[in-house]
Every structure is written in structure tokens, then in C-alpha cells.
């Protein structure tokens, strides 16, 4: 497969002033590396929140729901790299470059020396992407491969990471998000969920949004559509069967939610992914 240059995203963003939260839907079939240069963020990944601070690096596997949220410290500066595994296909490997993304731990803290190496390396990637000199994409491939080797060596040799929940509220909401992840195909209502976890519906709605960045309905729909996307690619089930399997009894409603989140109807999505596999 020939990797398109658009499949590689490299961003350096510094935000000041007003609070900033990511768009409601965020998962993709690419790997993501997020490094916080300055400030603090809450980073909700899959079903739990991490308190990310300066010098922390966040690793996101493919198709994992994630979203950053504002802490009390609004200003922050970060570098983000998003890429497909195809970028390293032509490199001879004696290491699983993507091992670091497949662990339960998502956030790691770097010491000052490691931060210096990381920041120099990330800014080299940014400059190479910006200048686009001859052979730049080949060089970007080399730089990202070097970054992945560093991360895997670091993870296998360190015990320094940010594993604690920011507080007990985040821990409880993580438990609720985990419950939704396991029971997304059942009828889930905010009222029933609040009763089960001893909250009022109003309090649960407000707190769930504050902690995760998603409303209850947004989160439930994203979990369901993510599973539907997988079934469209990996199974021969028809659209009606998939809709029922992920918790939607109304096919029209399922189609509307699916398109709102993915930008495509279920049939279009299946066709696009099928054609993409043929090119591999």
C-alpha cells in the first residue's frame, strides 16, 4: 500500500485564555502520540480520565475513544502526531514498533533528560513537515520510527507513569463509563444508570459531561457506532442486524446517528473500507 501524505498529521498548538475542549467525537483508525509541552489537561481515554501534566506523553491506539478536557489551568501547549502503521511498512524491523500502543497504560511521565530528547525530536518532525524539502517524507518516516523505538525502550525500562485517577469522582465516572462500554447493546437510560449508581439523573448528567467531555447520550452513541464500524468491516451481517446488535431498534435512527459521527451512511462506510482493503 502506498501511504498518502495526508495520512500523517503533525500539529503544534498553544492555547491561551478561554477553556478549550475537543470536538465531541474523536476516534480514528490511526495511532496518536500527544505530548504536553506546558500546562495541564484532563485526558479521557476509553473509559477513564488521566491528569496530564507538562512532560507527559499520551499514546492512543487505533479506534480508541478519547477526548481532552480543561483543568483549572486553561493555557496549554502540545504537539500531536497522528499516523497509520503503513508509514513504517518498508522498514526492516526487529522490534514491534506498536507494542507501546497496545498496553493498558496510556500516559507516561518523562524525566527532564527524556523531556529534552522528546521535545528536540518532536520539533525536528515539525520542521521537516513544515519545510517539505526533497525527501522529507522519507525522513519523516525515519524520525517517527526512531520515536517509536525510543518509546518502546522507555516503556519497557521504566515504572514512571501517571496511573492515578485525578480524584474519586473521576474514578466513579470511569466505573460508569466502563459499564456503558460493556452494556452498550442493551437499553441504557440516564435515569436507570443514575439509580444503579446512586446518583440523581441531573447530577450524573452534569458530572459525566464534566469528567469525560461527552454527554451521556454522546458517549453511548460513540461507543455503539464504534462497534458498528468494526462489524461493518469484519462481519457479513446486514445493516439491520448490525443496528440491533449495537443497541438500535430503529434502522433510520441508527443510520442518522452513524452518519453524524462518521460522515458516511453505514453502506457507504462498508464500501469505502472494502475498497481500501483491496488496495492493500
Give an overview of the whole structure.
- This protein is α+β, with helices and mostly antiparallel strands.
- It contains nine helices and seven strands.
- The protein has helices spanning 112-131, 136-157, 168-183, 190-196, 201-212, 216-234, 239-245, 251-262, 266-279, and strands spanning 9-15, 31-45, 48-53, 56-60, 66-70, 76-83, 107-109.
- Strands 1, 2, 3, 4, 5, 6 and 7 form a seven-stranded antiparallel β-sheet that branches.
- Strand 2 (31-45) and strand 3 form a beta hairpin.
- The longest helix is centred in the middle third of the chain and has 22 residues, at 136-157.
- Residues 1-5 have low confidence and may be disordered.
Radius of gyration: 20 Å
Q: What structural class do helix, strand and pairing data support?
A: alpha+beta
User: How much beta, percentage-wise?
Assistant: 15-25%
Low-confidence stretches: 1-5
In helices, the fraction of residues equals: 40-55%
Please outline the major beta sheet: 7 strands, antiparallel
What's the order of the H and E elements?
EEEEEEEHHHHHHHHH
- End-to-end Cα distance, whole Å, is 5 Å
Cα shape: globular
Count of runs of 4 or more consecutive helical residues:
9
Number of strands: 7
Mean pLDDT equals 87
What are its keywords?
280 residues; 7-stranded antiparallel β-sheet; 9 helices; 7 strands; disordered N terminus
Outline the secondary-structure elements:
Layout: E1 9-15, E2 31-45, E3 48-53, E4 56-60, E5 66-70, E6 76-83, E7 107-109, H1 112-131, H2 136-157, H3 168-183, H4 190-196, H5 201-212, H6 216-234, H7 239-245, H8 251-262, H9 266-279
Amino acid at each position: 500500500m502506498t501511504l498518502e501524505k495526508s495520512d500523517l498529521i503533525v500539529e503544534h498548538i498553544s492555547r491561551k485564555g478561554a477553556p478549550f475542549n475537543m470536538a465531541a467525537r474523536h476516534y480514528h483508525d490511526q495511532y496518536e502520540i500527544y505530548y504536553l509541552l506546558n500546562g495541564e489537561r484532563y485526558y479521557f481515554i476509553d473509559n477513564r480520565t488521566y491528569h496530564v501534566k507538562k512532560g507527559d506523553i499520551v499514546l492512543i491506539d487505533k479506534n480508541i475513544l478519547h477526548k481532552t478536557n480543561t483543568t483549572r489551568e486553561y493555557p496549554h501547549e502540545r504537539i500531536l502526531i497522528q499516523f497509520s502503521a503503513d508509514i513504517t511498512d518498508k522498514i526492516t524491523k526487529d522490534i514491534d514498533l506498536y507494542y507501546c500502543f497496545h498496553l493498558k497504560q496510556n500516559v507516561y511521565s518523562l524525566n527532564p533528560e527524556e523531556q529534552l530528547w522528546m521535545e528536540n525530536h518532536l520539533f525536528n518532525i515539525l520542521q521537516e513537515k513544515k519545510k517539505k524539502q526533497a525527501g522529507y517524507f522519507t525522513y519523516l518516516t525515519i524520525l517517527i520510527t526512531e520515536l517509536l523505538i525510543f518509546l518502546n525502550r522507555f516503556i519497557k525500562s521504566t515504572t514512571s507513569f501517571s496511573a492515578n485517577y485525578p480524584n474519586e469522582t473521576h474514578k466513579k465516572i470511569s466505573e460508569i463509563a466502563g459499564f456503558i462500554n460493556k452494556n452498550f447493546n442493551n437499553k441504557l437510560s440516564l435515569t436507570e444508570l443514575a439509580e444503579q449508581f446512586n446518583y440523581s439523573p441531573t447530577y450524573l448528567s452534569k458530572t459525566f459531561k464534566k469528567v469525560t467531555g461527552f454527554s451521556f447520550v454522546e458517549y453511548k452513541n460513540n461507543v455503539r457506532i464504534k462497534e458498528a464500524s468494526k462489524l461493518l468491516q469484519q462481519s457479513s451481517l446486514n445493516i439491520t442486524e448490525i443496528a440491533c446488535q449495537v443497541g438500535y431498534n430503529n434502522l433510520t435512527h441508527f443510520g442518522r446517528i452513524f452518519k453524524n459521527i462518521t460522515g458516511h451512511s453505514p453502506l457507504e462506510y462498508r464500501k469505502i473500507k472494502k475498497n481500501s482493503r483491496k488496495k492493500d
